[in-house]
């Protein structure tokens, strides 16, 4: 599964709350004060009694949850046959499930199934030859306990058929940051009353939500083959796992499609979708590769998904296991509750992946497509045995984004992926540090975090760097081959790496997979009498995180154009390394390949950083130099470096340089601004042009109105949005007509930017425009759009303002998404300054809010 945008925002929000609420954070070298925020963990921490009396509990340490073992296997699922039809009006699934099962070890006289909120019509034991026997059962609306006619031994396979009605829409709501609802099956626009929205049915099984629409043993350590017959209105397309083996028109105008998956997969990977889709066909080694999109996006489906066959090829070769499943389909659905989901051979994406050609100028979706492709080996072919081992799915999928980028777009682009992952993880680590593999989570949904994804991906990268490419891929091949179609835990991964390399790797797996935290390193160096001394201090809290063993490369740059590489292994909290060098080096670079998952504070002089930029061998080294010199931009050598960087061949470096030149006040002012103006108008990459516009806008005493006006005609929506941002505080007469015409642009980024522009510059003419977009924007966009709407209404006449206030109040109280409620609340706040009545309303909204995170946020506002 891949995080949705919303999940990320939710997380950011949580971080905001966390960071602000946190009043005690132990800092290095000072005597830590006792924190009042967290209680000591109940147990399982390796802290002695004497230690706890003086040790501060870090705010990022979550209290420990209960032990979460893998589900005990009483039965093994073998095969599932589903016959399904749908009652759109009642949002119900009318189904028959025929399960073939076998006791796992002990003989069983009962079969316990997960089945959430069903009406059970009857349960039969199938005796063969068309004979059957009614079975009794107990049912508490969560689990169905079927009483068998006798005890069955593990040598005996039997079949049970259950006729039921599933009512996923009537289940109590739940969810997580990664999956915003756990209903399992979703009817979109079921009555056809929502204008402009197609009618669809789709499912989201992970984590244990498929049991909301068919009875199963809803655990990741089960595995089954399946056959799903979907009876739908004749006009709809269907999709499920495996192959479409039959499609039959029925007398009543419906059609029954039969999808069959002959290879076994875990129940959470089962999916169905129904709706009006265009199916764009591709192929790879004779297997169908299909893209299901809304008909109006049929023309660009290949532009979005077209690298999929190449990815199947790339990863088949890398892993040494040819893509095993019967086909590869991807579908984009409305109102999806996650980012994307790797259902075996039938991946679901959110509607946002459907892009126009123009939108594709600014971005591609390879990263999420590659993520789900990789799951077909790591997750689907070999599956984590329990959610505690989720990183065995997600870390590999996350790392797959890096591997694909490295292969397709080069080392610099890959380094940028790596940088983003590290930052994402470090952000989360401000507030939460847990082991990657954790058997004591409180809620299984908590596993879907930046640890399981981004930290895990980075850990795999370090493992690859440590053992080398050949051993890395050989070990992965053995792991996949040996464990195919089974469930695994992390030790199985460790053991193949140990077998291949011949080395005991317990140290690596312990510190990175089983312990929490990350190294926080202070790096200094000095030169004396022909010797370079490098000091590495591990400054992390070593009560709750380990002292790390870190194999790492150090590059010592003498006077030649090639550095001497020293491979060292850091093992102590404070350690000195000595290298001989005939002269004072120009640069001593710790972690030369920038592969460590760590927070590194490296003391380098201005000269060294300039040298580093000049001799950098990758994007990250250039970025570090720019970042390290950010405060010295006024110096001529530094601004010269940045102007040089504006012409770098890699666009990420150009963005970094443009951003570092914000509010530049040095001696080269005129020349610098002229350069940035050139970048804003001519750079080939839209992100760079957009960043340049934002930087121009930071020069408050200068008028770049004509540059912004020209940018409104840019091909890129990102650039247009940046220009709107720049014009917000300095509107020009010449741009007004163009801005009005942008109101019709079908791009949410532009609409959001326009919202910001009109917040300050709009008038009554835009009132209806605002109102209509309040209805159509998605949750994450509304979070910024609604505060702008509030600000805009400050200038509206009383009647319009009153109507807008009612709308915002309704959303602040009742919107299902708390991001929307918060956005609406902020919109109301913008109007409350002059209204005692509104202040009372806000107080009441705060008092009635039930979401803990949002309540915390309100307390801080
Ligand atoms: Zn994933």
TrEMBL record:
Record region (Disordered): 26-50
Leader sequence segment: 1-21
An annotated Gene Ontology molecular function: zinc ion binding
Gene3D superfamilies: Leucine-rich Repeat Variant, Neutral Protease Domain 2, tricorn interacting facor f3 domain
Cofactor(s), by name: Zn(2+)
One cellular-component annotation, GO: membrane
This enzyme's EC code(s): 3.4.11.2
Domain Aminopeptidase N-like N-terminal span(s) in chain numbering: 81-269
CDD domains attached to this UniProt entry: M1_APN_like (cd09603)
Family statement drawn from the similarity comment of this UniProt entry: Belongs to the peptidase M1 family.
Protein name according to UniProt: Aminopeptidase N
């Amino acid at each position: 599964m891949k995080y949705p945008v919303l999940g990320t925002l939710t997380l950011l929000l949580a971080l905001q709350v966390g960071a602000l609420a946190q009043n005690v954070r132990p800092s290095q070298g000072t005597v830590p004060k006792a924190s009042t925020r967290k209680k000591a963990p109940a147990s399982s921490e390796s802290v002695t009694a004497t230690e706890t009396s003086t040790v501060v509990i870090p705010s990022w340490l979550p209290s420990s949850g209960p032990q979460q073992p893998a589900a005990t296997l009483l039965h093994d699922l073998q095969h599932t046959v589903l016959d399904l039809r749908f009652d759109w009006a009642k949002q119900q699934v009318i189904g028959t499930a025929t399960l073939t099962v076998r006791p796992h070890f002990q003989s069983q006289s009962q079969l316990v199934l997960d089945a959430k909120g069903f009406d059970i019509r009857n349960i039969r034991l199938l005796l063969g030859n068309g004979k059957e026997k009614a079975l009794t059962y107990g049912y508490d609306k969560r689990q169905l306990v079927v009483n068998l006619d006798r005890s069955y031994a593990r040598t005996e396979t039997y079949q049970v058929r259950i006729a039921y009605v599933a009512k996923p829409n009537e289940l109590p709501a739940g969810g997580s940051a990664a999956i915003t609802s756990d209903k399992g099956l979703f009817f979109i626009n079921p009555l056809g009353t929502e204008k402009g929205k197609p009618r669809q049915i789709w499912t989201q099984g992970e984590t244990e939500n498929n049991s909301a629409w068919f009875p199963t043993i809803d655990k990741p350590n089960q595995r089954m083959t399946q056959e799903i017959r979907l009876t739908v209105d004749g006009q709809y397309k269907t999709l499920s796992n495996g192959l479409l083996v039959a499609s039959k028109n029925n007398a009543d105008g419906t059609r029954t499609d039969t999808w069959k998956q002959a290879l076994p997969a875990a129940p959470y990977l089962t999916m169905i979708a129904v709706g009006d889709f265009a199916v764009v066909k591709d192929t790879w080694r004779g297997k169908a590769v299909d893209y299901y999109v809304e008909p109006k996006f049929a023309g660009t489906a290949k532009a979005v998904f077209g690298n999929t066959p190449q990815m199947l090829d790339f990863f088949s070769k890398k892993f040494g296991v040819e893509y095993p499943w019967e086909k590869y389909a991807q579908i984009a659905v409305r109102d999806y509750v996650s980012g994307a989901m790797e259902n075996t051979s039938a991946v679901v994406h959110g509607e946002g992946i459907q892009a126009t050609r123009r939108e594709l100028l600014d971005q591609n979706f390879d990263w999420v497509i590659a993520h789900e492709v990789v799951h077909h080996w790591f997750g689907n072919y070999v599956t984590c045995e329990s959610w505690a081992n989720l990183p065995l799915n997600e870390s590999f999928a996350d790392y797959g984004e890096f591997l694909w980028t490295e292969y397709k777009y080069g080392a610099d682009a890959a380094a940028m992926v790596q940088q983003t992952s590290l930052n994402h993880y470090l952000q989360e680590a401000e507030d939460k540090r847990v082991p990657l593999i954790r058997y004591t989570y409180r809620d299984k949904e908590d596993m879907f975090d930046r640890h399981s994804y981004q930290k895990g991906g980075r850990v795999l990268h370090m493992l690859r760097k440590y053992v080398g490419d050949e051993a890395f891929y050989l070990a992965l091949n053995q792991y996949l081959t040996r464990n195919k179609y089974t469930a695994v835990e992390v030790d199985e991964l460790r053991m193949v790496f140990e077998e291949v390399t011949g080395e005991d790797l317990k140290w690596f797996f312990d510190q990175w997979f089983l312990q929490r935290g990350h190294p926080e390193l202070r790096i200094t160096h000095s030169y004396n009498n022909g010797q370079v001394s490098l000091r590495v201090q591990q400054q992390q809290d070593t009560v709750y995180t380990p002292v790390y063993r870190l194999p790492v490369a150090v590059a010592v740059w003498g006077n030649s154009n090639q550095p001497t590489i020293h491979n060292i292994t850091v093992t102590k909290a404070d350690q000195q390394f000595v290298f001989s060098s005939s002269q004072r080096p120009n640069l001593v670079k710790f972690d030369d390949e920038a592969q460590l998952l760590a927070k590194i504070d490296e003391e380098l002089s201005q000269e060294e950083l300039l040298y580093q930029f000049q001799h950098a061998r990758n994007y990250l080294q250039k970025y570090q130099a720019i970042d390290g010199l950010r405060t010295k931009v006024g110096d001529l050598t530094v601004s010269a470096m940045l102007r040089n960087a504006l012409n770098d061949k890699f666009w990420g470096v150009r963005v970094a340089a443009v951003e570092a030149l914000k509010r530049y006040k040095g001696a080269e002012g005129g020349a610098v601004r002229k350069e940035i103006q050139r970048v804003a108008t001519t750079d080939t990459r839209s992100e760079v042009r957009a960043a340049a516009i934002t930087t121009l806008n930071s020069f408050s005493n200068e008028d770049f109105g004509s540059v912004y006006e020209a940018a409104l005609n840019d091909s890129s929506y990102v650039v247009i949005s940046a220009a709107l941002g720049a014009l917000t505080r300095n509107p020009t007469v010449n741009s007004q007509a163009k801005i009005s015409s942008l109101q019709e642009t079908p791009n949410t980024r532009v609409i959001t930017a326009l919202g910001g522009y009109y917040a300050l510059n709009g008038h009554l003419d835009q009132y209806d425009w605002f109102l209509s977009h309040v209805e159509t924007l998605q949750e994450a966009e509304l979070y910024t759009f609604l505060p702008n709407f509030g600000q805009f209404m400050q200038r509206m006449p009383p009647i319009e303002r009153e109507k807008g206030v009612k709308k915002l109040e309704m959303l602040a109280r009742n919107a299902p998404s708390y991001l929307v409620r918060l956005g609406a609340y902020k919109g109301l706040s913008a109007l409350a300054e002059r209204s005692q009545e509104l202040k009372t309303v806000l107080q009441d909204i705060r008092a009635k809010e039930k979401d803990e995170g949002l309540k915390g946020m309100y307390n801080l506002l």
